[in-house]
């Protein structure tokens, strides 16, 4: 049964990659963005607070005026968002490094461009209160979850397991990793059907506050100075080249939103919580969002060095071929022009 499950999982991943490649090819060639609309994709997570706040308050819309439309669409996890970008369903996405790298591997070096950072931190490995992971051997036979296969938290979890001497069932190993959406992860955790989950905020805090979980690992502790890219802003080279005026206007306002939320007050976090509720139909206790917000930093710096580490991890896991060059991903020209005009230090990619 285990071999059958492994083979089916590998087949599913292969078919998904093939379909994505075909869809990207036809979608990218066949569709074109609008000159008077900016379509933004993001996730209803606290790590996407600058998207949630700017859309909920209408700040982004007001920056363009009534003759221009800012449209938004929420996704469950990064791979869905990057697929939407590659197939021209959106023009700009808030997304994690792993889906971005997967998109680079599928589409090649001349398609995606990171134009700004968005968040650092805000992801943790939460386990059941009765689970003991003191030794490497304790991971044997455990069942964990991440929001989607090959998303940023999945790469982090699988690489961490590798450092502890384990691989997943899908890779012929001894640890089961499943991929339900975040709300289902919470329900499974509450029923005791998984031993732990590596998830973004606010889901990490919800697992602790609502399901009695304990923080086994705050991912920040794995990184130099506890800084790593959780979310950045990605567009396509074609959109960047053809709509620099639109992106400049958006990024100028986006920097304002980022600076404001770096010192967010209670009313700001209430707005973020309200937008999460609007998108998910679940209203969180405000204390959960407040606590989740303390576990991350909002920043327009893409922290490019950490993306290079994610690339190495993905290659170590065999998800991305060796030799992929991620340097072409970054085009921070527009952002840095805005920062310099404000007397703020410029940022770098790779």
What do we call the CATH homologous superfamily of the largest domain? Periplasmic binding protein-like II
Question: How many helices in DSSP terms?
Answer: 14
Output the helix-strand order. HEHHEHEHEEEHEHEHEEHHHHEHH
> In which range does the helix fraction lie?
40-55%
Dominant shape: globular
Number of strands: 11
For the biggest β-sheet, the strand order reads: 2-1-3-10-4-11
Task: Report Rg.
Answer: 20 Å
The unreliable regions are: 1-19, 21-30
Task: Domain count, please report it.
Answer: 2
CATH topology of the largest domain: D-Maltodextrin-Binding Protein, domain 2
CATH class descriptor name of the largest domain: Alpha Beta
Q: Tell me which CATH architecture of the largest domain applies here.
A: 3-Layer(aba) Sandwich
Provide mean pLDDT, rounded: 92
Strand proportion: 15-25%
Largest sheet: 6 strands, mixed
- Class inferred from helices and paired strands: alpha/beta
Distance between the termini: 44 Å
Write up this protein.
This protein has 350 residues and is of the alpha/beta class. The chain has two domains: 2-122 and 228-341, Periplasmic binding protein-like II (D-Maltodextrin-Binding Protein, domain 2, 3-Layer(aba) Sandwich), CATH 3.40.190; 123-225, 3-Layer(aba) Sandwich (D-Maltodextrin-Binding Protein, domain 2). The protein is built from 14 helices and eleven strands. A six-stranded mixed β-sheet has the order 2-1-3-10-4-11, with helices on both faces. Helix 6 (152-163) links the parallel strand 6 and strand 7 (176-178). Helix 4 (78-86) packs parallel to helix 5 (97-107) and helix 6 (152-163) crosses helix 13 (304-316). The longest helix is centred in the N-terminal third of the chain and has 29 residues, at 2-30. The chain starts with a helix and ends in a 9-residue tail after the last helix.
């Amino acid at each position: 049964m285990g071999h059958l499950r492994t083979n089916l999982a590998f087949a599913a991943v292969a078919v998904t990659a093939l379909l994505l490649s075909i869809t990207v090819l036809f979608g990218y060639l066949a569709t074109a963005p609008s000159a008077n609309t900016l379509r933004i994709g993001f996730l209803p997570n606290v790590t996407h607070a600058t998207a949630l706040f700017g859309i909920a308050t209408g700040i982004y819309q007001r920056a363009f005026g009534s003759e221009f439309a800012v449209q938004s669409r929420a996704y469950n996890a990064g791979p869905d968002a990057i697929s939407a970008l590659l197939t021209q369903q959106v023009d700009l996405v808030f997304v994690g490094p792993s889906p971005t790298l997967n998109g680079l591997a599928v589409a090649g070096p001349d398609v995606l461009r990171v134009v700004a950072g968005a968040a650092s931190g805000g992801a943790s490995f939460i386990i059941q209160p009765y689970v003991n992971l003191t030794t490497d051997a304790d991971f044997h036979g455990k069942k964990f979850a991440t929001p989607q296969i090959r998303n940023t938290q999945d790469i982090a979890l699988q690489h961490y397991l590798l450092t502890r001497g384990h691989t997943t069932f899908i890779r012929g190993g001894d640890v089961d990793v499943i991929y339900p959406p975040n709300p289902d992860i919470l329900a499974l955790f509450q029923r005791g059907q998984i031993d732990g989950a590596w998830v973004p905020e606010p889901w990490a805090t919800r697992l602790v506050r609502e399901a009695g979980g304990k923080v086994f690992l705050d991912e920040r502790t794995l990184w130099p100075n506890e800084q790593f890219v959780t979310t950045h802003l990605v567009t396509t080279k074609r959109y960047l080249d053809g709509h620099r005026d639109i992106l400049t206007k958006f990024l100028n306002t986006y920097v304002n939103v980022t600076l404001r939320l770096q010192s967010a007050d209670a009313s700001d976090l209430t707005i973020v919580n309200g937008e999460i509720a609007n998108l998910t139909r679940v209203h969180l206790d405000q204390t959960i969002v407040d606590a989740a917000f303390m576990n991350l930093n909002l920043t327009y710096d893409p922290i490019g060095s950490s993306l290079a580490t994610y690339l190495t991890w993905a290659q170590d896991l065999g998800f991305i071929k060796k030799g992929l060059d991620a340097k072409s991903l970054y085009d921070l020209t527009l952002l840095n022009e805005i920062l310099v005009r404000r007397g703020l230090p410029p940022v770098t990619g790779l």
